[in-house]
Every structure is written in structure tokens, then in C-alpha cells.
Design brief:
This protein is mostly helical. It has a domain at 58-193. It contains 7 helices and 4 strands. The chain has helices at residues 7-25, 31-35, 76-83, 86-99, 103-119, 127-144, 162-171, and strands at residues 149-151, 158-160, 181-184, 190-193. The strands form 2 sheets. The chain has a two-stranded antiparallel ribbon with strand order 1-2. Strands 3-4 form a two-stranded antiparallel sheet. Helix 4 (86-99) runs antiparallel to helix 5 (103-119) and helix 6 (127-144) runs antiparallel to helix 7. The radius of gyration is 19 Å and the shape is globular.
């Protein structure tokens, strides 16, 4: 690089070039490269108290949603879930849910809203709403997606989501609706059922 460039400018150019090569070569593990802004340190500002709760799709119109215009890829949502903060993960899963609803997406919306509330990652007016939204999102799993599953890290062993959704409502101080109850299986494990 030309020697007349400052160290900061050279570093910036080098970083840009590396990011461009990574994107073009398909070797990108960092979702911030894909979306062009940091996905860490975000703060939730609720623009609609039903955003991210099926069948609401207002997350696609939220100006704070970094994924509203581009969507979220099949593998990218998992990279964001594991590598970014809960606000970014919430927006990713809510975008996925709005574009093609299914129970796993609703569950991860709820999980991330609960984390946002517990970590205080919403503005002051939105913090109590984040808790209420998490409760509604968990309840939506029970109401709308009772057969929903997710998979372990290997992607091969499925487990149902109604039990953790039920527990999520209770842990946040909500009341489970719809006739769901928690029972013990013959092996002693908890299981949410709707008799």
C-alpha cells in the first residue's frame, strides 16, 4: 500500500479488502460482514407490542431491524443466534417468522426477548414490553405451533418446544393459557401437555 497513507487508513483499507474477499469467497463466519453493521450492542426499542408474535409481520417495517430488507439465511440465523447479542438474534428470528412462520422461529423469538428483558437490553420504555412480548411469544408456540421441534447441535436429534415454551411463560411470571399443564413422564421428566 502507498506509504503516504496513515496507519489507520491502511488498516481500514486492509479490513475492507479482507471482508470483501471473505464475502466473495463465501468464507464468512461473522454476520456483521454480511449486514455491514455491528450486530452487538444493539438496544431494543419496541415499535409494536406484537412485533415478532405470529401472525404479526410489523418487524419487516421496523426501521431498527437490520434484516428487514435482506432477510436472513438458513445458516445465518444460527450464526447470529450463537455469535451476536439477543437483540440482533431477536430481529433475525422475528424476520424469519414474518417471512415464513413456523414454531422453531417463534420459540427463538421468545427466547431472545426473554434474554433482552433479563439483560436489560431495551430502552427504559421498552423493557417491560420485552417481558410481555416474550410471554406472548412463548404462548404463541403453545397456541399456534404445538408440534414444533428444534434440533441439537448435530442437527439430528429433535426435541419438542412446548415444554420449554411453557416453562418460559412461568419463569417470566406469566400464566399459561389454553389448558396446557405440566406433567411428569414415566422417566420423571417434565412435559407440557394439553389434555
Amino acid at each position: 500500500m502507498p506509504s503516504f497513507l496513515s496507519e489507520g487508513t491502511r488498516n481500514m483499507r486492509t479490513g475492507f479488502l479482507l471482508a470483501t474477499v471473505a464475502v466473495l469467497s463465501g468464507c464468512y463466519d461473522d454476520p456483521t460482514i454480511i449486514y455491514g453493521r455491528s450486530l452487538d450492542g444493539m438496544t431494543l426499542t419496541v415499535t409494536d407490542p406484537d412485533m415478532g408474535i405470529y401472525p404479526n409481520t410489523s418487524v419487516l417495517d421496523d426501521p431498527n431491524n437490520p434484516f428487514a430488507m435482506s432477510g436472513v439465511g438458513t445458516e445465518t440465523k444460527w450464526q447470529i443466534q450463537s455469535g451476536a447479542d439477543p437483540v440482533a438474534a431477536y430481529y433475525a428470528w422475528a424476520t424469519v417468522l414474518a417471512n415464513g412462520p413456523y414454531g422453531e422461529a417463534q420459540y427463538y423469538v421468545a427466547l431472545n426477548l426473554a434474554a433482552i428483558y433479563q439483560r436489560g437490553q431495551a430502552d427504559q420504555a421498552s423493557l417491560p414490553l420485552a417481558r410481555e412480548m416474550a410471554v406472548k411469544a412463548y404462548q404463541s408456540v403453545l397456541d399456534n405451533f404445538p408440534d414444533a421441534v428444534t434440533y441439537d447441535a448435530s442437527g439430528t436429534i429433535a426435541y419438542e418446544l412446548v415444554t420449554p415454551a411453557y416453562k418460559g411463560v412461568v419463569e417470566l411470571g406469566g400464566t399459561v393459557a389454553g389448558g396446557w399443564v405440566m406433567v411428569k413422564t414415566s422417566s420423571g421428566a417434565d412435559r407440557a401437555v394439553k389434555p
